[in-house]
Design the sequence.
């Protein structure tokens, strides 16, 4: 016979008008977020130091994950940056994905079927506006 224990809701500390109403909190450790490989797309973050670092990262894109690359260590090497960007553009083009530069130090490359919007979203007066 299984015994089920109910958790008491946690009351926030401090005095407020709603002390009679305890807030309910969700324990995220109780949920299964599908940790099995291949069930979800994953955003992977990489840092590159030379052109040769790109080849192993291509498998991440080909496996369907999104790749965010920090190129800060090599951003002053113009020739290497051109080669890397060219290689990543070709990878995105071949796989029907997308590539975009974000800020001054990051490139995002997506796999097949995932496009990146170039428009920024802003919240004005509680509503989302495209800039």
Sequence:
């Amino acid at each position: 016979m299984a015994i089920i224990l109910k958790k008491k809701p946690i009351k926030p500390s401090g005095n407020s008008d709603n002390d009679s109403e305890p807030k309910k909190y969700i324990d995220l450790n109780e949920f299964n977020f599908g940790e099995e490989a291949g069930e979800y797309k994953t955003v992977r973050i990489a840092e590159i130091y030379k052109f040769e670092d790109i080849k192993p990262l291509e498998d991440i894109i080909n496996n369907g994950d999104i790749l965010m690359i920090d190129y800060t260590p090599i951003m002053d090497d113009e020739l290497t940056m051109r080669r890397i960007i060219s290689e990543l553009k070709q990878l995105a083009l071949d796989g029907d994905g997308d590539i975009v530069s974000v800020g001054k130090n990051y490139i995002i490359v997506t796999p097949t079927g995932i496009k990146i919007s170039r428009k920024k979203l802003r919240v004005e007066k509680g509503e989302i506006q495209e800039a």
Q: What stands out?
A: The radius of gyration is 22 Å.
